[in-house]
Amino acid sequence: MNNLIKVISWPFLLLAFSMVLGCPGAGESTDENSDVANVRRNIILQYVRQGRLTPVMREKLLTLTTQQALTDYAQQQDAAYLESLPIDGNLAMDVLNNVVGIGPRFSGSEGMLQQQKMLKAIFEEHGGLVEYQRFKAKNPISQQGVEVVDMANMIVRWFPERKQRIVLCAHYDTRPFPDNDPDPQKRRGIFVGANDGGSGVAVLCALAAKMSKCKSGYGIDMVLFDGEELVYNSTRDPFFLGSTHFAQQYVIDKPEYKYVAGILLDMVADANLQIYQEVNSRRLAPKVVQQVWATAKRLGISEFRASARHEVRDDHLPLNQIAGIPTIDIIDFDYPSPQIRQTYWHTTEDTADKCSAISMAHVGWVVWEWMNNQK
Fold it and tell me: Are 252 and 246 within 8 A, CB to CB?
């Protein structure tokens, strides 16, 4: 996605936690090691954000007095919780780790080709019909101005006979370099894009594994956009190449089917997940926003916050503005947290260890339930 345009008010979350829970994990023992207290506090706060802290769990955490015991308990609880969820967060995490393991996956790179081969096999394994929408784009760093990059949106179809369809999408390219890194020496280093580039792909793969049980009355297309950020200079190079091409072709080709709604998934794996309603989504596709956040509320997925915070330029804009497809952007732009000024976005810190299987499972569950309720 492009740079953040607007930040709207941030609630005093920690103050609310302390009012409800006291100071969780702190002050229980005057001689307790502060590192142990910090680990406990972070676990409790994470469970509160995820809406799964029970009194029994909190009391258990307060009895554990070493970092290792706290970490082991949290890992056991996380594993059991993941098993209870309808969307396979472990599968999503495996996919994320595998795409990150490829390394940089910017448009036209060898890494992108490896990723395409891997994802095609995953989607086909789960019954998806895979096709590529190929096009060419000007290479932003061409000295002669004539070099092009071979691009390809990946389109995966389920129930292709249905004329009314939903599009679920994400970008699967990574930025060429981590040019937002706080260390200038790293800004031409390696960028693997775990959350920004990998997470949306991983959630779609987890959803693909469920598609044989999909009860929606609509056809489903999953689209992975190339060239979301084939950008070396943010003030010069165009964003959203793949989604723009997809939207333009939808208008030009006038297919027999019609997209009735869309959801874009971007930066949805943050371990400290907090998803606000994106401003452009509320303006351009308010009905879809209302439906999705109502679904999250019904499921008790508390990471979905029913207020606006960011206005973001992203792949949903061409779908809305060119193709006329009411599409929302599910995105957590506060990576890692609204309380931390330094961001992992477009830096060398955007790695798989900052990501969470539970976060991806929660997002996938909301999308799955919303999709199945569309008749």
Answer: no
Q: What sections of 50-109 are H helices per DSSP? A: 55-63, 67-84, 89-102
Q: Which CATH number does the domain housing residue 185 bear?
A: 3.40.630.10
The whole-number pLDDT of residue 35 equals 93
Helices (H), ranges, 126-236: 199-208
DSSP state string for 166-197: EEEEEE----SS-TT-SSGGGTTS----IIII
Q: Which domain does 228 fall in, by range? A: 89-372
CA distance 65 to 18: 21
Q: How many residues does the chain have?
A: 375
Give the integer Cα–Cα distance in Å for 42 and 55.
16
Rg (CA), the chain: 21
Fill in the amino acid letter for 272.
N
* In-domain check, residue 354: yes
In this structure, the answer to whether residues 50 and 133 fall within a common structural domain is: no
**pTM for this one?**
0.92
Enter the tokens of residue 124.
């086909």
One domain, residues 192 and 289: yes
Q: Comparing C-alpha atoms, which of 146, 148, 118, 116 is closest to residue 135?
A: 148
C-alpha–C-alpha distance, residues 150 and 53, integer Å = 48
Q: Are residues 33 and 139 in the same domain?
A: no
CB-based contacts of 74, cutoff 8 Å, min separation 6: 43
Looking at the fold, whether 80 and 110 belong to one and the same domain comes out as no
Query: Which residues pair with residue 305 across a beta bridge?
Result: 276
d(CA 179, CA 231): 10
Sequence-ordered list of residues with C-beta below 8 angstroms from that of 297, at least 6 positions apart, any chain: 304, 306
Q: What is the pLDDT of residue 1?
A: 65
Tokens 């891997």 label which residue?
A: 118
Last residue of a domain, one of 69, 84, 99: 84
How high is the mean pLDDT in each 10-residue block of the chain (375 residues)? 48 42 44 86 95 96 96 98 98 98 98 98 98 96 84 98 98 98 97 98 98 97 98 95 98 98 98 97 98 98 97 98 98 93 96 98 98 96
Alpha-carbon gap, residue 28 to 356, rounded angstroms: 28
Q: What is the Cα–Cα distance from 185 to 201, expressed in whole angstroms?
A: 29
Find residue 168's DSSP bridge partners: 222, 263
